[in-house]
Structure formats: C-alpha cells, structure tokens
Write a structure and sequence with these properties.
Protein name: Transposase
Pfam families: DDE_3, HTH_32
Number of helices: 12
Radius of gyration: 39 Å
Helix content: 25-40%
Strand content: 15-25%
Length: about 350
C-alpha cells in the first residue's frame, strides 16, 4: 500500500539546484532520479505517473516526496548507515604490538604471522599480515649496528678525516689493512639452458679447496692506486715486511699510514724509530669503516672474487694481481663526503637478552 502522497512545494532556489542537477553530465544516476522525482512532484504529478516516467517503484517516489517535504534538499542525501561492526579494533592492534615486544616461542628464532595468530588465539593470520604491512613492520629484515666505546673517538676520527680532506703538504697518506684467508676454491662453472630458451650462468655447490692467501693492501688516498702483496699468514712480522716494501716503493717521502686497531698494527715503536718518515694513525675502536681501504676490499670482492674458480693457490694470487694492475690503470681517489663523524648513542633502542 502506497502512503498518501505528500504535497511538494519548491522554492525558486531549490528548483534551480535540482534543474542544474538534472542537466549536469556528472550527476550520479541515483541523485538524478531523486531530483526528477521532486521536480515532477512539485508540478502536481501523481506518485504512480512519476514512478512510470522515472522508472522506479511507486514506494521509492513516495519515499523521496516525504523526505524532501520533511527535510528539504538535505533529505535527498543518503543517511549515514552504521554498517557491520569491525571484528578487530585498536585493542587488537595493541595486543599484536605487545606480543612483538616479547621473545618468540621457545625454539623459534623470530616471530612470524602464523606464530602471532596462534599466540593471540582469536585473530586471523590474514589480519595479522595486513596490520604488519600497514605499520611497515618486517619480521624478517634485520639491521646490525656497531657502537664505538672508544673514549678518544672524536680525536681519532678527526685525525683520520683530517688526513682525507686536508692532507699534509708534501706527504703521502696511505690506508693499510689486510684481507685474510681468501680461499682458492675450485668449482664447476658454466651455462645452464632452461626449457624456455633462457641461458643462465652458474656454478656447482660442491668445491675443492686449494689453500688460502692473505692480501696486504695499501691505498694511496690522493690517487686511489693500490699497492698489494700476498702472504701465508697475518702476523706482525708479515705486516712489517709489507710496510718495508711500501716504504721501499715510496722512498724519501713523509708517509701517514691509517690503520685499524688490530694488535699486529700496534707496539711497533722500534720499527717506527727506524723509519722516522712514517707515522701511524689509528681509527677508533670498532670504527674500521673510516679506513678507505675497506671500501676497496669490498670492490675487490664484488668485481674479482665472487663467482670465480681456481685450480691452485698460485692461480688465485695471479688473478688478484691482474685485477690490481687493471684497477690501478683506471684508479680514481675516493671522495670523502660525510660532513660530520661523531659519537652518538642509539636512543630508544630495545635490546632483548635471552
């Protein structure tokens, strides 16, 4: 049964709004039908005739006639709907965060989505994953850090950085360190052709060891060139032998040598007395990254050693020597860009000791 039709009276302002709504090409269909219903009702049309012209049920026409008569243009808007109550709330989110602060179940290295859902008991694992993604929480990624507890960190860092940005006149600055135990591994290598026609390079998992070598290297800060030699061991005697070869290569020049805090680099006062042109500078404790030769060791690993195979220790050493020669032909100095090097404690860091 259709309710009794309400009489609709349109003001001039409301009529202009509704007519503009009907003419606009971007008006939603639902809003267009509501506007036409009210305009036709204001012209005195019956509910059934309006329903037939607009293409809706008579009860829909009656609804919007009453809504406009009672509330005006605002009555033509949809009323807020309560909708379904969410299953999970902010309390659920707090429970997940609180659980992440606790150690994972015994025997597990870290929390996973299923482990969190199982521990919570009443939370679906898909919601756990959505929550972690929305808060950019990665359960797998790990960050490492190193804090220097050297009380003289500032002075030592300033000394080393000063040699990079303002080296002494008529002196050579060298960064010296060792890359120990480089293995000569023999692996089967070649190309693997997949059924789809794609070719991949690869190597076998099994390998044969042919010994190790320790590479002593000195990087000249001004030119970026490398002086390198091989040794079987990494003792003080091998280090001093390398320094003897370096001083012989660069005679009659003042040398400032940057070293890390390895024990073999220290307590060499007798050697320094015999070489008054050489001065050692040490990076702060746990801050060997200040030594530029560490950057070159990373380049060596990536460009020369990774994915290679050697049938003898001599072949490995010749391979490294060939790379050093090729590198020196195109060597460029590293540019120090860090403006500040300071000792700062991590704040707000949470460390769990099990």
């Amino acid at each position: 049964m259709i309710p009794e039709a309400r009489e609709v009276h349109l003001s001039r302002k409301d009529r202009k709004v509704l007519e503009a709504c009907c003419r606009s090409p971007v008006t939603l269909q639902r809003d267009l039908k509501r506007a036409r219903i009210v305009l036709l009702a204001a012209d005195g049309r019956s509910t059934r005739s309006i329903a037939k012209e607009v293409g809706v049920q008579p009860r829909i026409v009656s609804l919007w006639r009453h809504r406009y008569a009672d509330h005006g243009l605002e009555g033509l808007q949809d009323k807020p709907r309560p909708g379904k109550q969410p299953i999970y709330t902010k309390t659920t989110d707090k429970r997940i965060l609180k659980l992440l602060d606790k150690p994972p179940p015994q025997g597990f290295a870290r929390w996973t989505g299923p482990l969190l859902a199982e521990a919570l008991g009443d939370v679906d694992v898909q919601y756990v994953w959505r929550f972690l993604r929305s808060h950019k929480i990665d359960l797998v990624a790990r960050k490492s850090w190193c804090e220097s507890n050297d009380p003289n960190f500032t002075a030592k860092a300033a000394d080393v950085v000063g040699l990079y940005v303002a080296p002494p006149a008529k002196a050579i600055v060298l960064c010296v360190d060792e890359k120990p135990s480089i293995q000569a591994l023999e692996r089967a290598q070649g190309y693997l052709k997949l059924p789809n026609g794609r070719a991949l390079t690869g190597q076998s998992h099994d390998y044969k060891r042919h010994g190790t070598t320790t590479l002593f290297a000195a990087l000249e800060v001004a030119t970026g060139k490398i002086i390198a030699t091989h040794s079987k061991r990494r003792r003080r005697v091998e280090f001093l032998d390398f320094m003897n070869s370096v001083t012989a290569t660069i005679p009659n020049r003042k040398l400032h040598v940057i070293l890390d805090n390895l024990n073999t680099h220290k307590k060499n006062e007798d050697w320094l007395k015999a070489h008054p042109n050489v001065q050692f500078h040490f990076t702060p404790t746990s801050a060997s990254w200040l030594n530029q030769v560490e950057v070159w060791f990373s380049i060596l690993q990536g460009q020369s050693l990774s994915g290679t195979s050697f049938t003898s220790l001599k072949q490995l050493q010749e391979h490294i020597d060939a790379y050093v020669n090729a590198y020196n032909d195109r060597a460029e100095p590293f540019v120090w860009t860090k403006k500040k090097v300071r000792q700062r404690r991590f704040k707000g860091r949470r460390i769990t000791q099990l």
